[in-house]
Amino acid sequence: MKLLRSLLEKNEEWFKNQILEYVVSHGAESGDVTADWAAFFANLKHGLVDLAPDTPPSTGLHGRFPTLFEQMDMPMFILDDELNLGAMNKAAAMFIGRDLEPGELEYARECFLEPSPPQSCESKSLTDYLPWLAESLRDTRAFGKIGQKIRYDIPVSLEDGERHYTVTVLDMPGTDDDSFGYAVVLDEISFGVEASRKFERERSRADHYLDIVGSMVVALDTSGLVTMINQAGCEVLGYEADELLGREWVDLVIPADQRGDIKEYLYLALSDDMAHGEEITNFVVTKSGAHRLIQWKNRLLTNEKDVPMGILCSGVDITEQQLMEDALAEKELWLRNTFVALGEGVLILSPNREILDANPAAETIFQMTNSELEGLPAGRLHVDGDHYEKFVQKTEAAFEDGRTARFEYVMRRSNGEVFPTEHSISMISGDDGSKLGLVSVIKDISARKRAEKVLSESEEKFRRIFESIEEGYMVTDLDGIINMVNPATCKLLFYDESNLIGKNIDLLYADEGERQQFREVVLEKGAVRGHQIHVSRADGASIVVEANAHLVLDDAGQPMALEGTFRDITNRIEAEKILRDREKQYRAFFENNHAIMLLVDPATDRIVDANPAASEFYGYPLDVLRAMELNEIDALSPEEIFMEMDKAREEGRTYCIHKHRLASGAVRDVEVYSGPISVLGKQLLYSVIHDVTQRISLERKMTKLATIDAMTGVNNRHQFFTLGIRELQRVKRYNSPLTVLMLDIDYFKSVNDTHGHQAGDLVLKMLAASAMSTLRASDIFGRLGGEEFAAILPETGLREGMEVAERLREAFSKLVARVRDAEITFTVSIGVTLVRSTDKTIEEVINRADEALYKAKRMGRNRVEQG
């Protein structure tokens, strides 16, 4: 009895839990015990408490505690120091697969209650029944240590699978604090372990989903601290997860002017004063300081007792979407243009599926005009009525599921040709949910279907292509044993396939150090591209190859092989060496040439290089010139440069004429000869420049002499007719009005006869100057000979032309030429005509104006007449 009391005292808490479970399982209230555990425990030790209502009254512990021992649901064994069985309960007997024989229960009682088993208690070793339990108990090394209680978990492989148990070892002291033995209790936790594993798998799967989902997902606790955030959230905010976890969400990422509103919202949400799935939109501030507009769906998180534990927030970055919506009203015309220009056919259908509108692509697909398609029932574009009905059924089924109808279907052109299409049909609904119509996007996939057919029929063809590619292909295991090669490998390395398969790749390396370096790079980075390796061919020659390789991973993500391609670049390396030598020669030619030379990067317009002759011409030091852009020395605008390039192409010139500005500010006319050149593998523009300022100046003077009347400075007869022909062609092209004036000085011969030719020349000059100041810059004025002049007025009708002629006549009448003591005045007669659609040459128009001029002279001079 002393042994049992000692056992109870040293393991009071454990027995308390076991007794509470037992009491509740027999219908009693746990409060009956817990209300005064101290009294209950004292009575239990002295045998004064019944354990359950249906337990027979007893005055001693002999009948009560063994009953608890026998009826425990968990197996319990009483062992000595040698792991011999002193006693076991019914659950333990069933666990080891045997029933307690008659009298054995009393045996168990005696063995349990006495300080040492009676002689009649035959010892049985736990090893005979549960060797795995015995082995684990020995491993605990707890035996012989008085006063210990040990608890541990152990997995066991049994015939029906793996099981998990919690083993509790309680020491059972005997008299004088000597150890009587141990009580061992087994509690199966297999279900809990499996549930824990499943929970971890589900949690891992959930974490993975949250990291790949496009939306931001953030969890906040009741104080507003971040307890979880997914990868998308980190990317939007620009933080790492550990920079956010445990931080106050509102103060960290909400703009200062919105924090009060958001905190109030979170307070209401945690007070459960928020609709399920309610959406809110607010700005967040990223780590870089940028503001992003996020649309949130929030859900209150509660425990099993519906106590709020936090908020789960799912957010979508709608910053760009909001900007688009704000600009939507301004894009209506753009959308219409897009509808028209869209490469895929689009039909707008009424609710009863009549065509309301079609874009040009749809017209092309069905070979019908918009007017032919408008009002046409959509079913007329299908093969037949049954075919169309099935099409409608598929569409409606998609709409019922809340989806856009997307599928492939054959249709019919106006010529009866049946062709495959890819459909995307969406319903247009009003704000009240009413059906307004349908949008049907149709793509003719005839070409794709033909390509797919060709592709499916060409598998063998592509296999042959793979085998015939010029690049070598090789697969090795991680030890370097070659598993696979293609024919190109054998061709490049002069080996037969049989001499490579199964061999170590070491035999191909000319340098073992290169092999080790290549392997380390691949294993470290997982892949390598453009790695140069010296390889030994079967004939003993050494070549240089450029290799690309990567690790091949198994389903668990572990490396299992190396795969790669390579090509022989020996000739390329030699060619690059020759190229470098040639570039050295070019450098010497470039530096020592007296011609002005520039190298320009066409992508950036930057002067990459310039020779000393260029430095001397432009007046900049070489280092300054090499840091400039071409537009800093080119005085022409981009538009003028483009026009000059276009003119050079039209004239078949190999050069362009530019104006280059020198460091002194002077501008020089230059001829630029340009062409592409590759320097160190980069495409540049090579330009040779000649200073042609003097030549161009002479050409301009010669042009002026050939086109300008020497006395008056206006267009001469030849230039006037040349410009007139051009204007007449423009009139024919654009159908615009054009008026021509002919004018002649009245009684000019008398001026010469009375005052001399010097006076006559002065009158001609004054008339020309007055005409040029009166006419527009776009008007053409010229001297046709003697005192006869003409004017061409573009974009001018007859009435406006008559008004211009009157202004000229009046202006000339006010002129006064002073020669010596004489003052000379003069008048002019003017003939005006309008270009007609029947006029074929400018001469016809001039002649008609000339006739009007002589009409004015016949009618008294100093007047304007039309013809």
UniProtKB/TrEMBL annotation:
Residues 736-867 form the GGDEF domain. Residues 405-457, 529-581 form the PAC domain. Residues 202-273, 458-512 form the PAS domain. It holds the Pfam family PAS. SMART domains: GGDEF, PAC, PAS. It comes from the Bacteria. SUPFAM superfamilies: Nucleotide cyclase (SSF55073), PYP-like sensor domain (PAS domain) (SSF55785). InterPro entries: Biofilm_reg_signaling (IPR052155), GGDEF_dom (IPR000160), Nucleotide_cyclase (IPR029787), PAC (IPR001610), PAS (IPR000014), PAS-assoc_C (IPR000700), PAS-like_dom_sf (IPR035965), PAS_4 (IPR013656). This is Diguanylate cyclase with PAS/PAC sensor. It comes from Pseudodesulfovibrio sediminis.
